[in-house]
Predict the structure.
Amino acid sequence: MIEVRRTIIAGNWKINMDHLEGASLAGDIAAGLEGREPACEVVLIPPFTALPAVMNAIEDSPISGGAQNLWYEENGAYTGEISTGMISALGCRYVLVGHSERRHVIGEGSDILSRKLRAALAGGLIPIYCVGETLGERESGTASKVVAEQIGEVLTGLSDADMRSTVIAYEPVWAIGTGKTATPDDAGSMHEIIRVLLGDIFGSRTAEDTPILYGGSVKPGNAAELLAREEIDGALVGGASLEAGSFLGIVFPA
Ligand code: PEP
């Protein structure tokens, strides 16, 4: 499954929306796309319990589904976990790996994230691998070093084909859910750094073909200027994806 560089707008609902609310929101977003041609792939990433209802609601639409997390083993004694096979059986295409809340709240590090990313790829899912620095790291001037470690430690060793089936999301931790957005220049320059890092590991062609999304307080009011940057291939959206009007305002930026 080799993917191409494309624009992706993905809504990460986190721990919001039960299955009834999720089906209703997905239905409203699907209805908002009807008869319109979005210039991007639209992805909904609901909580696990809402995934079947959401997949059902988007069945006849161009929207893709994704999961927020996965376990790296296919089955066995891992109480509370969900495998790649279970996620793909619902028709999902994507899975988040390394979201800052998994890194900083749950405590996941490079070792477990490497396993999860490889399990996703082995099971035919496209990982959206999230990287980004904290406010302290940005202020101390180590943002690019931190992001380089997150990229190098987890992606090094992937085959070229696997890298070409992976999406990156740059999400500065200080911009997630805070209302503070990286300026298009700040986001654009970190995207450039990430592409150079990918080029060093996988070669420039693969790096050029990898979609790199931006995430961190993206909303209808700032989406157009972020998405206008040539280095930014789309957005991973949290808060603004919880309401059909605001999410559609990002999918169709003014
Ligand atoms: C996210 O959860 O990935 C995110 C970017 O959240 P928000 O848009 O709310 O900052």
User: Anything to note?
Assistant: The beta strands are 8-12, 41-45, 64-67, 94-97, 126-131, 167-170, 212-215, 234-237. DSSP finds twelve helices and eight strands in the chain.
